[in-house]
Every structure is written in C-alpha cells, then in structure tokens.
Amino acid sequence: MKSCQCYLFRPPSIMSISSWVCLLPLIFYTCLAVGAKPASPQNVNVLSLNTNYTLTWDWDYNSSDALPVSFTTEYIPRFKLSSKRVVVWNMACEESPRRSCDLTPLDLHYLSIFILRVRANVNGSHSDWVQKKFCPDTDAAVGPPSKVDLGPAGGHLDVFISDPLTSANISMREELQELYYHILYWEKSEDTQDLRSRSLNSSVNMVTLPNLKSWTWYCVSIQTRYDFYNKFSSFTNPICMQTQGTLPWWQIVLYFLASLLVFFVLMLLILCGSFWCYRIVKLTLYPPIHLPKHFQEYLQDSPSSDVPRLLTPDSESELLCEVTVCPEPLVLEVHQPPPEDLEEPHPDLEPDIRHSRQDSGGSNDSGIYSTGGSSGLRPCPSLSHEGGRTSCQDIYDPQQVKMKDMTPGIRSQLIIDEGVLDMSV
C-alpha cells in the first residue's frame, strides 16, 4: 500500500517537466483563439439610386491573422420586430466573401422601413451583428433623367426629357409623383468665363426654351429634383444644338439653283440609263438582220441611196395581178351506136367504155363515155350495104357537148338529139 502511494506521488522527471512547459503556451493560445470572437464589420452603409440598393461595410483583415473571412447579411421589415411572434430574419447574402450585398433583387417596397444586419464569420466563429435602418423613400437618392433630346423649333429649342427609371425599367414617377426637372441652358461660347446661364423648372417632359437668338448654338443640362425630402440628382452631360430662323434671300436662291442642278443631273442619268437599257434589250431580243444586196438594190431608189423606191401606177400594174382559179368543166361524150344489123362494130370504138341500156320498148341502145379532154357526137355520114349488112365506112368524130353547171343532186338528165332516143347520165 505504501509502495503504491510512493509510486503515485513520485516526483516527475526532468524530461516530463520540460515537455509540459513547452506545451503550456500552445494550449493557452488555442483556448484563447477558440473562445475569442472575430471583429464586427464597420461603417455599414446603403448605396441607393432610384430603386437600386447595395449594402456595404468595412472590416479589418489584420484582426483575423490571415484566416478566411465571410459575411452574412439578413433583413426584416421593422414592423415585424414589434410582433409577439417569433422573429424570422430573411437571408440576403449568406457566407459571401465580398464586403457588399446587393439588395436590388429583393424588391424592397419603396415606402417601407427595413432593418438590415451583417456579421463576420472567421474559422467557424461569428462576430456580433451590426444593424442598419433603411427606408428607400427617405434614404434612396434620385437619379438624373434617363435621356435628354433637343429639337429645333424655329428660333426656339424643344427639350425632350425621359424620366429616370427604376430597376424594373419603370418611370420613377410611379414612386415620386411630385418629381420635376431643373433645366439649365446657356449660349455656347469658347470663352468659359463669359457664360451666362439661365434656368427654368418644369414638371412635364417637353419644354420649349424661350428668348433664344436665331442661328445660335445653345447647350442644355438637366437635374432631377424632389423637394419633399430635398432630393436632387446630378446634372446630365450638356448637349448643344443650333437654333433656326428666317433664311436670307441669297441662301434661298442658292438652295433653289442647287436643287435645279441636282434635278437636272438626276433626270439626265435616268434618261441615259433608260436609253442604254433600251439598246441592250433591243439588240438582245431583235438583233439586226441585213437583207441581201439584190433585194436592197431593188427596194432602193438607187444603189447609193437610202431612200426606198416608190411604186408608180405603171409599176403597180406590173407588180400586181389578179389570179382566178376555176375548176375544169366536165365534158360529156355521147356516141350514136350503129344500126342493129351491123355485125362488126367499128374498131376505133372501145367496147369497155360503152354503156347500153334497153328501155321498155327494147328497140334502141345508147352508149356514153367520158374523157378527160374534149368529147363529141357525130353521126355516121354514109352507110354501105354488103351482103345485106350495113356498116359505117368512115370514122365518126363525136360531137362535143359541154356541161357548165351540173348539180350533184340530179342523178339523170334526158338529152334528145338526132339519132339518140334517150340517155341516162
């Protein structure tokens, strides 16, 4: 038992004491670092223009001994702080390394009051919150007009002003109904010490500057103002324009002559272009074709002249004639057959072209044939009796009969002649 007590209370060795002495400062520094809070942000401020809001602050980086630092920003409407319910802050920027936080996307109401707070985060430790009250209606600055234009109005100048815009590209008159503009204008001059500016206020977006000189350059700069909270913006960049007036007579004459010259040149160009296009189209669609020389010699008055030859009455009678084409008349040949007692027909008569017909009496025959040329009918001039037979001694020359008008509808016609009883055509 004593041995145990001696062992428990044995004095430490020299090596163990030196180790504890070296570890004490490290342990003390670690405990101090864990228990200490980082420094809080300083100079917390809100930069605002129209409805664009940005919370900014400063922070001493030497206090963190080069450790990484981040910042957290929260906001809440002020009326909720007095509520008996649990206060819930809205997050704006969480663990951001920047020393600013954009509040524009939060769409804060322009007439409300908000409480903003920010703190630093170092190695898992948080600093104290730093709060800032912010009311856009009273704290937000108003911006200059978004656009300014000038227009001549005779001897005056018209000024066209566009309202400053919100972050949603809406006119600031939606938030500030009593917004107006302070217009500053002066005569442009190279001598800056002799500038005499004049001003006027207007709540409308179009203003006519009075009492200006003709044909003189003037410059204009405009400022936005809101008197309820004594807000005013910076002036816009100066823009300049020359006024107009009555033109002198020599300028009118000069402009008139210049316009006539321009008109004449334009018409000349148009005519030349039209003629050139006409020539190209004509040569393309209707290329030149020359007549043969013997045609040209006949049509011209003389070989070396371009005058066309004129037709005289004699030449007309030679050149012009009337041609009538008539059909060839049909010639009908009628032959008188020989008597019945003739045994042998005349050898010149062709039996294949003779046609015979026996009527109801059966005593007489007739023969008809047609030729392409002339035809005739001629009786036998003399008869000779040989052995009780009668023969035609001579060759008959048939008599020609011309038919001028023959109707296709008529199928037969009766021709009565000497030696012919009837005939069918």
Q: What would you say this structure looks like, in words?
A:
With 425 residues, the chain is α+β, with helices and mostly antiparallel strands. The protein folds into four domains: 42-139, Immunoglobulin-like; 147-242, Immunoglobulin-like, CATH 2.60.40; 248-325, no CATH class; 326-425, no CATH class. The protein contains six helices and 21 strands. Strands 3, 4, 6, 7 and 8 form a five-stranded antiparallel sheet that branches. Strands 11, 12, 14, 15 and 16 form a five-stranded antiparallel sheet that branches. A three-stranded antiparallel sheet has the order 1-2-5, with no helix packed on it. A hairpin with a 4-residue loop joins strand 14 and strand 15 (231-232). The radius of gyration is 67 Å and the shape is elongated. Mean pLDDT is 74; it is low at 1-15, 28-34 and 349-425. This is Interferon alpha/beta receptor 1b-like. Residues 344-358 have a biased composition (Basic and acidic residues). The chain crosses the membrane at residues 249-278.
